[in-house]
Design goal:
The chain has 375 residues and is of the alpha/beta class. Helices cover 55% and strands 11% of the residues. It has a 7-stranded mixed beta sheet, sandwiched between helices. The chain is elongated, with a radius of gyration of 26 Å. The structure holds guanosine-5'-diphosphate and magnesium ion.
């Protein structure tokens, strides 16, 4: 049976944690079939005695665990909890969930069901049908949350996901969570770690699913969210967004180097008196080799391909991809020239390269060669 561990960080939640444990163990867990449900409370030595309440309750519930530590911020608490859930509890999946009832316990079940039905990353989403933000929220608060999300979706190029800042999520361990370097996440002391963690998880996951979350207002005590948290969230989103653009810039640079290599070898092979067709073939292949090598060690260095057999296979694939680019050019080049006239052939070339060949290559490399995107 799948073992699912809810990781619940707490800091001064003595009023909430008792009712939360009760509701999960008495009401929600019994409703969930085909999964063994655990709760791991990560308490940062709350002065209000949250930890003692958990310790006491764990005498009654054997699937309740307490992990205490120094207060180092929310992200750090989650990272500690995730490591513990993976190594000590051998979890198959973990759920991130708040202790303050803002993530109503009844939404755990549909999240687990989505996982059992094959999703390896499940997002509790406020911005899909069935999900919502608290009615009590003033219009400006709604606007900030919604527009902030929209902005992050845009910056991270994730238009198909609707809630990138939610704190209620399920992550499969094998292949998703265990591939993330948790200690290197950005802004671990702040709430913004959520954006980086989501970004990495979505990258690793094969099937991402959003399930509705009716985000509830805080019942007791005050929120720890602030303006500072918001600024750092945007910062993380922008840095992650730029990281992706950096890859594209590297890809474009490598492409340009390939073009120069192509040109130089045309001259070299011609000068040693090879036949013209052979000269073009060889020079093109030199450019392909250059592109493959530099993309492998630089543009896609995180996904570097090594080993003789894999390299041979990938290089063959890469050649096929390049042949595709050749076909695009030889179809749309003449077509464009027919429309605007031979005089403007350089414009046609620029257009075809910029809007067709580059996106085509970038897509093929990310999806099929280095597999950094999972459509
Ligand atoms: N362990 C730990 N938990 C924290 C820390 N900061 C917040 N939390 C917990 O994280 C959850 C979300 O915090 P909350 O203040 O409700 O943030 P909000 O929902 O974004 O307003 C709650 O369960 C908090 O008790 C922290 O520094 N350490
Ligand atoms: Mg909260």
């Amino acid at each position: 049976m799948e073992k699912i561990v809810i990781i619940m960080p707490t800091y001064n939640e003595s009023e909430n944690i008792g009712p939360m444990i009760h509701e999960l163990f008495e009401k929600e867990f019994p409703r969930i079939k085909n999964a063994s449900m655990h709760l791991l409370v990560v308490d940062d030595n709350s002065p209000d005695g949250t930890g003692e309440i958990v310790k006491e309750a764990s005498k009654k519930y054997k699937n309740l665990h307490l992990l205490s530590g120094q207060k180092q911020g929310l992200g750090m608490a989650y990272v500690r909890g995730m490591k513990y859930a993976m190594k000590k509890l051998s979890a198959d999946a973990v759920i991130e969930m708040d202790a303050d009832f803002q993530h109503p316990p009844k939404f755990v079940k549909p999240m687990v069901e989505a996982y059992l039905n094959g999703a390896d990353y499940v997002i509790g989403s406020r911005y899909i049908p069935g999900g919502s933000v608290p009615k009590e929220w003033a219009i400006h608060r709604r606007a900030i949350s919604y527009l902030g999300n929209l902005f992050i979706r845009f910056v991270l190029l994730k238009p198909r996901l609707h809630d990138l800042t939610t704190g209620f999520r399920l992550t499969k361990v094998k292949g998703v969570l265990d591939k993330i370097e948790l200690d290197n996440l950005m802004e671990l002391k702040r709430f913004a770690y959520k954006v980086d963690l989501l970004y990495q998880s979505v990258k690793n996951a094969k099937k991402v699913k959003e399930v509705p979350l009716q985000f509830a207002p805080r019942t007791k005590e005050a929120s720890k969210f602030s303006m500072k948290e918001m600024v750092s969230t945007f910062k993380v989103a922008i840095i992650l967004g730029i990281k992706d653009k950096i890859r594209f810039l590297k890809f474009a640079t490598v492409g340009f180097v390939g073009f120069v290599v192509n040109f130089l070898f045309l001259r070299v092979f011609r000068s040693i008196g090879l036949g013209e067709v052979f000269v073009w073939l060889m020079a093109t292949e030199m450019a392909i080799i250059s592109n493959y090598t530099f993309n492998n060690i630089w543009t896609f260095k995180e996904a570097k391909i090594s080993g003789f057999v894999t390299t041979a296979k990938k290089f063959l694939q890469f050649n096929l991809t390049s042949a595709g680019a050749l076909i695009i050019q030889s179809v749309f080049g003449p077509l464009g020239v027919r429309v605007v006239g031979e005089r403007y052939d350089y414009l046609v070339l620029a257009f075809v390269v910029a809007f067709m060949v580059l996106p085509y290559n970038y897509f093929m490399y990310n999806v099929f060669i280095w597999k950094t995107w999972k459509p």
